């Protein structure tokens, strides 16, 4: 085959060509079938060929593809926005939704909306952002600056805006031995208050967090009470709370929004992956009633626009995905298969000498690999343990999402699993069996 002209992530190795999707399997040009245990990066929550989603997209292609949002709205965008507002966590109010193409764009839009809110609310001195480390919020410059992912930030450092990072709650390494979950939650949330006070509360615009951390740390839920305290602190100091649900949202953790399980609402919420489930490139920002009201009373305009906003085919595809999740009662399957995944991971890795931590929620689980379980010492990142395990699983025809640890040793290599919401028990068993075999291939068993 001639050398590829696509700018792939790795220019030295050749990739198989994906030619088809069948249920929860991807098929390459040689006819090889891979069970998709991660949906890419927690994207493909309805497998790869759902007939209802395909039909809805085809019907929209025949009806209308694009009408510019400067002059028109369209029905699928209106219906999808209404669906997302209706399901938003209690306290969101009469929100509005903006549709764009990717999670990174959604984060940029949320940051800009936060700024618009502050300016229109008569507080132009509020511009500072506080986020967490580790975290990942996207690849565009503003989103990359907001993320606390050292490896991805480093090469671009001089271009990044200044964002403060506090520690994200990571019980495996940060919870003190005799600390209660509530005490840990309080201590970690209070880091936010300390940072707001250090910066000067009148200058802080927003706090950004993933309700369940995804790519940077691997499916880390917050301890009980953490987000309630975060909400209190944000309210006390007039700071907006931006929930990045790009990975955790749209049912991945068993509820439409992961934040629902924390009993609070965010001021701005981003979502992406499970929204279009990979059938269409689409992301969204949900602005709460509080934000919308200030803008309505102010300029009355959204100070943000992208040419392909509210794209009719993208929103029609995503609307079909959300209807399928409802009609097929898939959130209850996420909970049931999630319990199975958690218990089979525990059975396979609970005593494994290199499995330091097993964490997650719903169909969103991770194992963290360590060199020494006793001391929790991570592997040297140069060894590329997670990548090797990902490759070994792939050699056994199962796709996982491996990530390397942080070079400073603050967290270890991990492998993330995010199977489709349509998974059947046999697929969950096969995923865990294969991952266990892949770990043994790399680390010995
Ligand atoms: N936020 C989170 C929490 C993510 O996981 C990601 C993608 N992994 C993004 C933002 C960026 O999304 P995208 O890659 O679609 O730009």
Automatic annotation (TrEMBL):
Q: What is the lineage of its organism?
A: Bacteria, Pseudomonadati, Pseudomonadota, Alphaproteobacteria, Rhodobacterales
Q: Does the keyword Transferase apply?
A: yes
The record's family statement is:
Belongs to the class-III pyridoxal-phosphate-dependent aminotransferase family.
The answer to whether the entry has keyword Methyltransferase is no
Which parts pass through the membrane? none
The cross-references to InterPro entries, in alphabetical order and at most eight, read: Aminotrans_3, Aminotrans_3_PPA_site, PyrdxlP-dep_Trfase, PyrdxlP-dep_Trfase_major, PyrdxlP-dep_Trfase_small
Keyword terms, alphabetized: Aminotransferase, Pyridoxal phosphate, Transferase
First and last residue of the signal peptide: none
Which cofactors are reported in the record for this sequence? pyridoxal 5'-phosphate
What GO MF terms are annotated?
Answer: pyridoxal phosphate binding; transaminase activity
Identify the PANTHER family for this entry: AMINOTRANSFERASE, AMINOTRANSFERASE CLASS-III
* Matches recorded under NCBIfam families: PRK07483.1
Q: Which domain of life does the UniProt lineage start with?
A: Bacteria
Q: Which GO terms describe its cellular component?
A: cytosol
Entry protein name = Adenosylmethionine-8-amino-7-oxononanoate aminotransferase
SUPFAM superfamilies xrefs? PLP-dependent transferases
